[in-house]
Design brief:
This protein has twelve helices and nine strands. The model has no long low-confidence stretch (mean pLDDT 96). The chain is of the alpha/beta class. It is globular.
């Protein structure tokens, strides 16, 4: 491939995305604050960079898969940041869930430096990222897509183009997170009520997942509860952040979101109780008077 790809952030999603790019035939440069993660990927056939700047200098398209706006800011403009090292006309693809107005401002900052930008939040989880089947909610100008399109299509089964300027992708992702957070909170509440009422949790799961009350989040996250496995695929604190962004966006236009506000408080309560770094299904632990399933032998 003539385009050289760089990916920063080898977490649950980023590692799978880097694998998808390599599987598509790209030479993939990677960087992660955990140098061992980058070295492991390099042993599998990639190139480990020592800093974002080192990566950026070698790449035409840089994909950032870090947690939030603050980490993206550090990747771009911090010590050894990639913005100053990127070649004129190269593309920065921002995959974090951030406030839309921040993404709009970032596009201008990078354009002023002669760089192109795609607002490109992602969804689908680690398994879909690894198989190249995730969803990307993107917005950017045609020139950015002209260079980055092949890479986006290698990483995702669905690449939605939602506008020609930044912000639209982030808005749609935030609305997705509204639903995801509310659905997880509702799923936890339903399972907690079942436990309180003495219903067999495995039987409840079987019935609900074959009934009209089912949701993807109930089916996925309550399986974690039944297995007593709270290993963080997506942590409680992620929804403290993301539902906070949902409420911030709505507050700016004085738009009421009663369900989102309640779900946000539930995740806040779970985080304050010490479960912030556990899987987001651990929001069920805020309910009193229930005995959660134990790990099966």
């Amino acid at each position: 491939m003539t385009i050289t790809a760089g990916l920063i952030g080898l977490g649950a999603m980023g590692h799978g995305m880097a694998q998808s790019l390599r599987r598509a035939g790209y030479l993939v440069h990677v960087y992660d604050v955990r140098s061992d993660a980058a070295q492991t990927f390099a042993k599998e056939g990639g190139v480990a960079a020592g800093s974002p700047a080192e990566l950026a200098a070698a790449c035409d398209v840089v994909v950032s898969v870090v947690v939030n706006a603050a980490q993206t800011e550090s990747v771009l403009f911090g010590p050894s940041g990639c913005a100053a090292a990127m070649k004129p006309g190269s593309v920065f693809v921002m995959c974090s869930t951030v406030e839309p107005s921040w993404s709009v401002a970032l596009e201008k900052r990078l354009n002023d430096m002669g760089l192109l930008y795609i607002d490109a939040p992602i969804s689908g989880g680690a398994a879909k990222a690894a198989s190249g089947q995730m969803t990307m909610m993107t917005a950017g100008e045609d020139a950015a897509y002209a260079l980055a399109d092949p890479l986006l299509n290698a990483m995702a089964a669905k690449v939605y183009k939602l506008g020609d300027t930044a912000g639209a992708g982030s808005k749609v992702k935030i609305i997705n997170q509204l639903l995801a957070g509310v659905h997880i909170a509702a799923a936890a509440e339903a399972m907690a009520l079942g436990l309180r009422e003495g219903v067999d949790p495995d039987a409840l799961y079987e019935v609900i997942t074959h009934s009209a009350g089912n949701s993807w989040m109930f089916e996925n996250r309550m399986a974690h509860v039944l297995a007593a496995d709270y290993t963080p695929l997506s942590a409680v604190d992620i929804f403290v952040k993301d539902l906070g962004l949902v409420l911030d966006m709505a507050r700016s236009s004085k738009f009421p979101l009663p369900l989102s506000a309640t779900a946000h408080q539930m995740f806040m309560q779970a985080s304050t109780a010490g479960f912030g770094r556990e899987d987001d299904s651990a929001v069920i632990k805020i309910f009193p008077g229930i005995e959660l399933p134990k790990a099966k032998e």
